[in-house]
Design goal:
Elements lengths: L5 E2 L5 E5 L1 H18 L11 H5 L11 H6 L9 H34 L9 E5 L1 H21 L21 H21 L4
Antiparallel strand pairs: 1-2, 2-3
Amino acid sequence: MAGRFEPLPGGGAAVALDEVEISILRSLAVQLLELIGPGDEPVEGEDPLAALFAEGPSEPPADPALKRLFPDAYGDEDEELRAAAADFRRYTENDLRARKREDALAVIRSLDALSPTGEGGAVLKLTADESRSWLGALNDLRLTIGTRLEVTDEDESGELYRLPDSDPRKPMVMAYLWLGALQESLVETLMPGD
């Protein structure tokens, strides 16, 4: 199971992780939580239905990584589309942020619950629901890192992937590629068999 998710009976997935991988994944998930920001916890005595209808922001985030995680629903070519995008954001972004927080928290919780093996690593076993949360978090982590690295569709030449070891971006590129391999293997385990 070397670094790839494998299917488990019942729709779950498992992967062997060493101590460094566990530490990196946990650190990245915590950083993602910090980037997304805290949720609005219900105030004691507050009407729970009011929270359901709370309006979110109407402007896109200034941070490019957050803008990638919470893109505009429509283009900004004209005033009408900008207004529609603002309305869509106002009524959906809070829920989307909450889901992304829950996905990152699921990663942290499952890593914290691991029991180390004799070699210093552990085998992470996920249920089908946990696998979907992990898939969402891995996607968000890749989008965030890719944005920070300024990865574009034009990077197909692989220039970014051939950086010298002395380049300060190299560790993040390696994390980006590793997360991509994890994500791909997790997707494969969740796909119905032929």
